[in-house]
Amino acid sequence: MIFADIEVVPAVHWDEDTRAYYANKSKTDDPDEAFRETALHPLRGRIWLMGLAPTASREPTVLINEDPSCDGANARLMSQLDEMVFKARPPWVGWNCNEYDWPFLRAAAQKHNRLNLANAIPHDRWGKKNSIDLALWAKGSRRWIYSLDEYSRFLGLEGKTKGVDGTQVYDLYKAHLEGDETALERAVEYVKQDVRMLQTLWPVYAADTGK
Questions:
Q1: Rounded mean pLDDT of 43-65?
Q2: Which CATH superfamily is domain 2-209 in?
Q3: Which of 33, 45, 129, 187 could cross-link 172 (Cys pair, CB 3.0–4.6 Å)?
């Protein structure tokens, strides 16, 4: 079993030319927002942090990509993931992972020629049998969209790290690059807490589904 959560950032460093280029491609009129949006595309964004845990009781491990704009650093991140996945067994467990985490991980694995890893990551209508997307289980309908934090708190469980949400990850990344020694620490704790919430939800999911 693999509980997983990723945090992503734009693939390239911010500059005026890059900001203008993506502003022309975006539906938003805000150049900064347009650039941030590139992080949410599996082929344009890059994984900065990856939280993983092989069981519902193990403290999460966070893999850190020291330079998401560098192909070499991204390749090393996939090598680390490949080693961890080799020791684990499916299913992969996440939140909104079928639409978000798994496509990012699979694209990165393919780019860096980790084809066995790419095939192990849940994908398409066949491979997703190895995926448990707790967001799909929780909402039970396409009409409603719940966040992991919202659903956990609804059940009376611990929510996300206070003072940080997913929209602030890129700000923490930039602060880290600018020398803020606490930014990386805060981001790592944020990812760990996301994985912990998945782990805490697991017994509820298992009891409800008979897993």
A1: 94
A2: Ribonuclease H-like superfamily/Ribonuclease H (3.30.420.10)
A3: 187
